[in-house]
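Researcher: Hi, I'm a grad student and pretty new to this. My advisor asked me to get structures for two proteins we've been looking at. I'm not sure of the right format, so I'll just paste the first sequence and hope you can take it from there.
Model: That works fine. Here's the first sequence with its structure tokens right after it:
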Amino acid sequence: MAALLPQPRIVEMLNKRAHDVLLGHNFAHQQIGYGKTLAAEEGEPIKQRTLLEVEVAAQQQRQLKSTAHHKYRAAASEQLHKAIDKAIATELNDIDNIIKNTIGVDENVCAILDILATNSASVGRLEPLVNDLSWLGRELVDLVNLPYYRKQRSKATAVKVENPALALRYIGLDNLQFVVPTMAVRHWMPHSTEPFSLLKRRLRENAMATAIAAQKLAALNNVNASHAFTLGMLLNVGQSVLVRLYLKVFAKIWQQRVDYARSSVNKDLHTALLEIKPDALFLATFLREKSLAVTSKVIKRMAFQYLPFNNVMQQLVNNEPVTQPLAAVMLKARCYGQYLLLKEHQLIEPNEIPQLFSYFNFTNEELAVLEASNFTNLAIQIN
């Protein structure tokens, strides 16, 4: 058995692995050297005829051309991604534009989350804000009309709900503290993540797992559970921002360069560009290095009055000593969300698990509660 790595190195390695698997199961395995090879067929070896000298020369020439093309394409991709990196950095300097045009955070959502964090919250205060958000009203109505929740209600109230105001009352304030942040974060996620076909689903599942883990851990550590759940849902909103930005900027700059290659009759560049696709390694590294800082900027811009998230995010982003109970909960919740993702894809070894949990100071009670929890959906009751 290989010698154990120091714990901080283990944490760094597993964090990288968790970001890699967001982009693809096979990609993550390739990054740690699990590339699959085709097994040779059994039986007698096939005799190869001796190549003629002219065939050998032709084969070598093809290999040289192929190698040269691959190098040219790699260089074109590198230049393309340098331009993309610079363009995204410029976009990230304007966080107001990110909020408005990249993920579309409406101020009403921030106000709703803030109201739900207060003791004076009421459906009456929420109703006009929800009415101005057609997508949220529609999703709340769809939720209470799900057969699962209609069965929970009495026969007298099991009729189909058709307006958001009634849906708010059926769901109730306690449930809304968990339902609204879930719906909001899902609404801000990319509509499409092609060519990374499963990325959106993994972002959604990881956000939910992190939020539920935060809620469970908060209950064990005298921390407000709804605050912890909300921040758990928001914690990776920076990933949604960066995925949206990367795919948008890639498409724009790639098209500009294809047009240039075509107009300048640069066949080699045109051919190389047509073979270049969005790069999993670039995006995974981008998410790992920048998403938490972007999340912090987005949360700060949301200007919450009652949700105490800014100082927590500052500690997480700057890797400062954790002095707030909510920050400690978030570190553990993020760790456990990544653990579930790695476990699902068989990307964490048995000897790595106790080291990971020890590094974040999980207690046996916390691990027992998390082990028994459901991380796929909200456990709410609608009367």
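Researcher: Oh nice, that was easy. Here's the second one.
Model: And its structure:
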Amino acid sequence: MNGPFKYSYCCAALLSVFALSPAFAADEQPGVIQTASGIDLIPYLNTGFKYDDNIASTKTFKTDSWILGITPGLQGQLLDGNNEYTFQTNLDYGNFLDSSDDNFLDFNLGGAADVELNQSNKFNLNANYDAGHEERGSGLFEGNGDLQNEPATFDSYNVGGFYEYGAQTTPARVQVNANYYDKEFTNFETITIYRNYSDTDYGASFYYDSGASVSWVFDASVVNTDYQIADLSGDRDSTSTFYRVGVDWEATAATAGSIRIGNQEKDFDNASRDDFSGLSWDASITWSPLTYSALTFNTGNSAKDPNGAGNYIESTTYGVSWDHGWNDFVSTNLSYNQTDDDYNGVDRQDELKVFSLSASYVTTRWLTLVAGVDVTDSWSSDENFGFDRNVYYINAQMTL
């Protein structure tokens, strides 16, 4: 597809979003099916087209395609006093018009229970199952998307929850939590078998409210990562320990946010691998100078496992996004996110930049149109990696 037509189509799609005239009250909510048992059901359907000029995220020999996406889903909610029970499920189908080998059908099912025993005792339980995929050229096959004949597929399971003691009216609260995550690939077994793994993490957080919607926080957590089979470079099993302090605050003086900073220790069972010890942080701050406009800043740093060679990656993220409501029906989002990865065990540094722009238009109570573009610039000191990618899309989000 030539460039002028591609950009013209994207502009036309954006203009068509703004050209429609709504004929409903802006505060109307999506339709809900209320059952006799008290469960509220919200069915939805998202569908759209997008154009991707580099579907396998390759540096050379790029393949482009138009993609039809269809996502039907169902959400459910049951309110029982102060307790809330929710579930959600959906299918996600992608049809690549110029590359049928990339077609996918994902499935997701999840649920959660938030139970308040009394004002000082509450707990949460949640579970999720994904039958998903990784796009060609991503994850384990990063830099080798042109060698894949289909996406890598996987099953993942996540079970977790927390228990919290302390009333909201008292300054101090304690929360203990635990979570188990398991991921297993279902194709390319001779390669992916070495990246089937599970994470078991547990921890505790202490909150102290100092007034004015501000909570000081101290948390500690441990993550045990276990791989089913060691790859040729040796055992990758490890234990990561985090100790961090921080602060949470709700909207005060037009800002809200959460900050955590502290230390991470990542220790490998394999003595031949370098361990990591260093600063770790997570921060997200939202500034809302107007009720209909918000700027969000976020950053983080931690050591994580690589998809390919190396012991670990020290990954630092930065991001900023601007959400603005132009009126009751039209809103836009402009964002920039950057990830800097420094590898240990191999000579490699990566820099990933993603620019995104989208516009949403609520045409009727049950239909919202979203059009946008994502521009990705990936650079690596290793000439085998790095790519450019542009994705243009228009979606329709429908409810009852």
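Researcher: Is there anything I should tell my advisor about the second?
Model: You could mention this: Helices lie at 3-19, 189-192.
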